[in-house]
Amino acid sequence: MADLVNLTIDGRPIQAAPGTLVIEAARTHGIEVPAFCYVPGFSLQAACRMCLVEVEKMPKLQTACTLAVGEGMVVRTDSPVIKQARKSMLELLLTNHPLDCPVCDKGGECELQDMVFAYGAGESRFTEVKHHVDEKQFSPVVFFDAPRCILCYRCVRACNEGMGVGALGVVYRGVVSEIAPSHGDHLECDECGQCIDICPVGALTSESYRYKARPWEMNHTGTICTHCSNGCKTTLGVRNDHILRGNNRDQSGINGDFLCIKGRYAFDFTHHPERLQSPLLKVNGEFQPVSWSRALLAVAKKFGEVKAAGGKFGVVGSNHTSNEENYWLQKFAREVLNTNSIDHHRTGDLPTFFDALSGRTDALATVADLYNTKAALVIGADLSQQQPLLAYQLRANWRHHQAAIYTVTEGPVRERKYARQMRIAQPAQQMDAVESLRTELASHGELVILFGDTIKGDAIRRLVAFGDSLGVPVKYVCLVDYSNSRGAADMGLLPDLAAGYHAAASTPGLTLPEMLGATDLDVLWVVGANPLAGGASFAASNAFVVVQEMFMTETAKRADVIFPAASAYEKDGTVTNVTGEVQQLRRALKTMGTKPDLEIFGSIAKEMGIRDFIPANPEAVFDQIRANVRGYNVPLPILRTGGAALTMPVNGRVPVASRPDLVQSNRDTLFTSGSLGRYSDKLNNVMERDRVRLYDSGVTAP
Amino acid sequence: MLFNEPSPLEVKVLSRRFELPNSASIDTFLANDGYKAFMKAVAMTPDDIINEVKASNLRGRGGAGFPTGMKWSFVPRNADKPKYIVVNADESEPGTCKDRVLMENDPHQLLEGILIAALAVGAKAGYIYIRGEYRYLIEIMDKAIAEAYSKGWLGKNINGTGIDFDCYTHSGAGAYECGEESALLESLEGKRGIPRIRPPFPAVSGAWQSPTVLNNVETYCAVPSIILNGGKWFADLGTPKNGGTRMFCLSGHVNKPGVYELPMGFNLLRMINEVGGGVWHGRKLKAVVPGGSSCPVLRADECDVAMDYDSVAKIGSMLGSGGVMVMDETTDIVRVALRTMKFYQHESCGWCIPCREGTTWLKKLLQRFDDGHGQSSDVNLIGEVAKNMLGRTFCPLGDAAAMPTIAFVEKFRHEFEAKLAVAPGSFEDSSRLIQVV
After folding, report:
1. Fewer beta carbons under 10 A from the terminal one: N or C of chain B?
2. Best interface-test mutation with B: which of A51, A88, A94, A132 has the largest number of B CBs within 10 A?
3. Concatenated DSSP letters of B314-365
4. In chain A, what residues touch B368 (CB-CB under 8 Å)?
5. pLDDT in tens, A491-519
6. pTM listed for this prediction
7. Across the interface, do B345 and A175 touch by the CB < 8 Å criterion?
């Protein structure tokens, strides 16, 4: 690397690429240069003056966050002048900062505390009266305490640059300068709360967490958000089996510094008052709480009778449950109940997609690819609403690398702000609109195509053929709705395809609509799904219905037996996100009376006397998945340490006819999450909820 | 209209038309060399214009004193983007009121200077950023611009020369910070008036990220005379490296305050005694702030100095924006320091920590001190807090607040200490303290 720049920092010879900022060069080599306002990836501010360094031949101290390395530069970060400068800067910062650390949410994990501890003075010489402003509420979930604010403008940039929303700005000037909403007295935004996460002090606080706990009282568990399909890491702060907050302050996981409202706040369903916490048995049309053993006995007995009589089972799996649970459910259905009538709510046409790709392992884009690709095409999805992390990645890519973004959607989307081309087209015309962009799409050397449920069946084959004809490497993302939509298909919750998209051993079973329409079904077993939502009818009036659920949904109401299920935050396992990356769920808490679905399957098997179907634990089931589902033989160390591993579950063609008629996205927005979203008060309380529509020009509209 | 009697010691170059009837009208201007320099510059190459300005030793009149010709030469000759001329008429430095008389009495001289700068760098549009408090000057400038358009000195194909140039006024909104060039550009673009990270400098990336020439009103006003009479002629009016004349704004405790055009290097004591008619009421001179409130104060014994950039810098102060503030022997320096800091505290934009918090701390500290509640340790503290700001702020506003404060404490420490000897204030005084805080 001949083109590296040579410089010296604190006497250490250091090499860095031209254009590298001194602060980055120093940090890369383990030399800490403190800063509040400097955040990699966001615009430079040079406002906090904490990163001042001495540079030979420069008369004044320089901010390391704005100074690019230069050949022969001699930098000092540890001289008495610098130590004094940092000390004085912190003394100045603390003049108007209230020292309410004992009650401040940030106490214990506050960057200002840490900085003062490391670089500050033991006492202040400031004896005047501090400036005070009363606390304000910016939104149902965001509070602002101006005196604590050190005006590093991180929140302003996270909102404007990171989210493309720009709901925060600065008003007034001088010492009374204040962070303020851009729209009067309230935020009109995604309510993602990233302003809170990025705040180095306790100025921005979260409604769900403020004044509830000290950070060190909580156990922190990094797990995967259970709402949309993006698979963001959310770190749950749990005290006494109550989740108090979700965030991603350690910036781990595929989402880095990103987390939307669902990952941050919508964990409150776990303690919703309507949460089911006891098995329920329907007696004379009324549900009665019963013991687990009584409920299990009733189910096992019925399953055994119907099986012995050769009756008809129907099994509906979930988009939210883990891979292990989905794998076990379809195995149970096929091998114990002898039925292929197993299905789930399909939100993307994955079988056709994999068939069209014919097992090409290099054709799947990862979340990281979206940040690095030179060009991306979004078809049939309001990405900022439906796939917030993917939208964030594309936005960051455009900001940092000027990526070429193209959209073909039913209405205006937020990506229009930076898209090279935006085409409005109804679903049936979207492929034609894509064709019209051919020359431009082929001009960037590579392309990632993200498509929603408007592209299904033959349209997918046409799209892949189109991609193949561009003459540049093309990767795809088949957009799906929920946290394990991809895993549900991969694990074989399909009537014609077993795990790994292998043809089901015997004749195909009933699809979900066929199950609901069949009058002669003897047993319907629904695990973590709500097929009767929105008034759908179930024809088999005499069928025995078993439901594993967290809430009394429309489907649960029709049940004969309900098992109270654990949520994703209450179990271990793995899930596969929209881009096909497998990640690990970790149990963060236990809710009394509930059991993970996998455990319920084992209990039923035990009650039926089928010893082979009692899984030891999720890890043992995952070993079976690794052995049986292609692509899932991922390196365990990556998974166990919180990493994400890409899977390509198909090798060759998928032996099945497309059923585009069964594919329908739920079209959730940022503030809805299928049936689950109904039980999150936080999602329901944000003021924008009723006003948000997909294709509503991308930002919340009045 | 002039607000002071001219002095016979003045060398009138920029102000030579001030006393003519209707001096602001284009007819008066045209009858007295108006736009002749522009027509001369049209015949010159851009390099010739810049070289003439370089030869004149004209240095930026806003305060920093950067050589104007050199600044213009930094503008890239071939740029894809349009180039702009921006005039800093955000004259806000306490003690400074020269741009005001230049625009009020001879607005076309400024327009001609802008046009010549445009020729030198190839700009097609110019903006005069006028401080919000100068509302009436915006009207004067707008009228002058309208006159220039109607007589063909602005717009398309200026008087047959084939040159196009449009000029606009833009009002500030009352922020001292917007006199800092990069904050001015932010404000001009309609954003919050906070300074930008530099480099890049405006010559390369200024207004709308395009190459921009940004100078003070007085700087542009000097350009027509330089072109008309030659750079050497202008340079010879002043001292080496300090060409031309300077509009000095003489204020404070003198008998004849006013704006006087004097050659660079004019002696400060002569300025006070002969131009300004001496310290008022026959009192003795105590101190002088030589170039606007951000310049370190000079004691009476330091005032025998030539008023050019280099000589004043040599004795530890700055020529600044030409605001000479004279203080007689009765002046309470602690009050001066407090009043000065009140200004900077009020005007700090709040962007960076040391300026935002430092000016506020100093204001509160000086207020308490002035109220008679100072402690002996406060004298050092005032100087130390100011030194902790110095050279560490984002833009020069922090330095502008720190430098005079440091000088007040260092040069008049005995006055601060004397305040301590006074018994704490009466009951009324302490109630005032509470109100102020």
Report:
1. N
2. A88
3. HTT---TTSEEEEEETT--HHHHHHHHHHHHHHH--S-SHHHHHHHHHHHHH
4. 128
5. 999 999 999 999 987 788 999 999 999 99
6. 0.92
7. yes
